[in-house]
């Protein structure tokens, strides 16, 4: 059995049934691709499978398909390849996933690009969102994507206009790895306006599809494709999404898979963020910086720093020191007795905090009166 | 013991210690206000209390304070009044609250305005946020506040510039009830630029403070005041807040009190929303519409409607109908066999869905070819 015969069998099988087809996947796993293809062509198969392949059993374009693939430097990725993302695809063992329409792993994947799919899946995050993105959404998508790609996280998305495109482009812009998962054949650039973008992704990242060459994207294929985006990503980040959005579908896949669902907030006045806010109300993790995504998809210990808090001259003061400090007027000065009344503290208890504040350079005494020192040194953190 | 003597005693006691002063509150609860005031002036009290009142024991401006209060049509609200929000103040029994600095209920409250404090607390929501609000934040604060006030929810806030002011003004604008909780005397309009706003609130809502007349606001009094904002509100909604913000302090009080903490999201690029996003990451409830707040502070059953989902012509189609529908081209027509190949279904299984789609007016047949009907009727929900 030649390598070519095996490849031709996989290519034929990839087209003979609409993916995913668990009956076909199981048949191929049992007989091997070459034997399975021969049996199907001979009509020797269980009746359940016969129904699924009936419409396309006579179509065998494997040779042309593989020639196209070779010409473009692509490859078929099968479960027999070390690159097959076995670990990531264990999510398809999940009952929640299997209950959903198309909730099975693909049988084989068509791919073009230097990135290894198993490595992508081990450290990947999906950045997805609406085609009707706002300038804000595209800006944030690009910012998150560049931040991930710079830290060697693969940015997985669907190559659509809007958020997806902004995410892919930003990853390319920092020479990072980005992966486009298509809902049609890898030789069918979709949307057509992203042909050049997909070409660039083929050069440095990965364009991947479970559909054979020439297959055109269709609505149900986008929904089916979305499960692959979620499965190949440790976290799915929805940047902008309307109330009805494919990105929400990808998030639902991620949730069923037990993967972390994230959403970027936006103005509540923006319809493009409404879907994100619904996700956040349902428990999605709020994302405002790339570090917060890396904390999820990265190695243990890659924790995001706390955002920097602005400092004020009152940081680090004790309660008594603060009461005394605040009892001093903005301009001018006060006596010990006046400070005591204002602070509501006995005069003798005012002295200690005043002395400490003086040592710290926050207040000064002049002729028995106390005043605030402006531009006092900032306290050590 | 005349009513006037009791009022004068409360007024004196309100100033003699910095509020809240649990030692004084307990002493007054034990002896009654008149006897407590007399004992304090005579120096007959526990030493713990003596320290707390030492600086101000000699100050008795009760008559002038009450004269000012009467002139403005105000009142003292004490635990003996039916208006005292006993139920709301049970949050001060909470250990988490008592552990915090100033985590005790006020002894007495100075108030001006027709709204009853107990009714406010039974159906109130705090709308708070940064003084450095953006146009977006002020817009959302006003929108939420008006929506609450129109549905008879009292809008509680702190009368500051920015979010607080926008919330108060919007409630006034729909003839609703709004409550300003001050960090100084009710005769000390703060900020000064909100004098007219506070005057309007006195006319239809409530201006309230635990501090005696003339007391100027100070930083620690804002922090102390914030606990009252939270206590008087079934939910605390932070509309915009920087990373370091008084509103975050109010939210911390609400959390310690077991009250619902809410935050409005905004652009992640906006520093004015950064504090809200931190709260949301920590579990605050995301708010995008007034209805979502009413669901929390309103009566059981006042549930927010789900946001409206846009409809598409494919709503309500079965999986098979969708596959068949999608197998038809955008323009032109296809034969049964072509549809079967595209959909990956046996030709005989394509007929049933096609017939149903035809009945529904979604597709039509002409000379053995099938095509999509544009502008098909919308499906019933």
TrEMBL record, chains A, B:
Q: Name one GO biological process term.
A: DNA-mediated transformation
The UniProt record lists the Smf/DprA SLOG domain at: 76-296
Specify the superkingdom: Bacteria
Could you tell me which InterPro entries the record lists for this protein? DprA, DprA_WH, DrpA_SLOG, WH-like_DNA-bd_sf
Give residue ranges for domain DprA winged helix. Answer: 310-369
Family classification: Belongs to the DprA/Smf family.
The protein's matches in NCBIfam families, at most eight in alphabetical order, are given as: dprA
Q: By its UniProt entry, which PANTHER family does this protein fall under?
A: PROTEIN SMF (PTHR43022:SF1)
Q: What is this protein called?
A: DNA protecting protein DprA
């Amino acid at each position: 059995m030649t390598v070519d015969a095996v490849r031709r069998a996989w290519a034929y099988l990839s087209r003979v049934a609409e993916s995913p087809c668990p009956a076909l996947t199981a048949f191929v796993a049992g007989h091997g691709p070459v034997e399975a293809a021969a049996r199907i062509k001979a009509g020797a198969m269980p009746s359940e499978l016969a129904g699924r392949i009936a419409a396309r059993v006579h179509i065998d374009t494997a040779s042309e398909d593989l020639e196209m693939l070779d010409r473009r430097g692509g490859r078929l990725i099968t479960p027999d390849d070390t690159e097959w993302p076995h670990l990531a695809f264990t999510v398809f063992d999940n009952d929640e996933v299997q209950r959903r329409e198309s909730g099975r792993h693909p049988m084989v994947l068509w791919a073009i690009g230097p990135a290894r799919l198993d490595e992508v899946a081990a450290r990947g995050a999906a950045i997805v969102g609406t085609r009707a993105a706002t300038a804000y959404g595209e800006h944030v998508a690009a910012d998150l994507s560049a931040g991930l790609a710079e830290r060697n996280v693969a940015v997985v998305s669907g190559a659509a206009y809007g958020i997806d495109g902004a995410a892919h482009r930003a990853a390319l812009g920092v020479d990072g790895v980005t992966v486009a998962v298509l809902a049609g054949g890898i030789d069918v650039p979709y949307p057509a306006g992203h042909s050049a973008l997909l070409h660039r992704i083929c050069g440095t990242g990965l364009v991947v599809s479970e559909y054979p060459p020439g297959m055109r994207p269709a609505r149900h294929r986008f929904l089916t494709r979305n499960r692959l985006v979620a499965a190949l990503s440790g976290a799915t980040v929805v940047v902008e999404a309307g109330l009805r959005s494919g990105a929400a579908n990808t998030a639902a896949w991620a949730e069923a898979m037990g993967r972390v669902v994230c959403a970027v907030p936006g103005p509540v006045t923006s319809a493009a963020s409404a879907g994100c806010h619904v996700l956040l109300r349902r428990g999605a993790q709020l994302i405002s910086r790339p570090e917060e995504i890396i904390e999820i998809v990265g190695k243990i210990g890659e924790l995001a720093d706390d955002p920097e808090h602005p400092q004020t001259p009152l940081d680090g003061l004790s309660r008594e020191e603060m009461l005394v400090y605040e009892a001093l007027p903005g301009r001018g000065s006060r006596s010990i007795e006046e400070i005591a009344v204002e602070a509501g503290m006995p005069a003798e208890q005012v002295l200690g905090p005043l002395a400490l504040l003086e040592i710290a350079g926050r207040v000064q005494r002049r002729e028995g009166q106390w005043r605030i020192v402006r531009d006092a040194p900032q306290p050590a953190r």
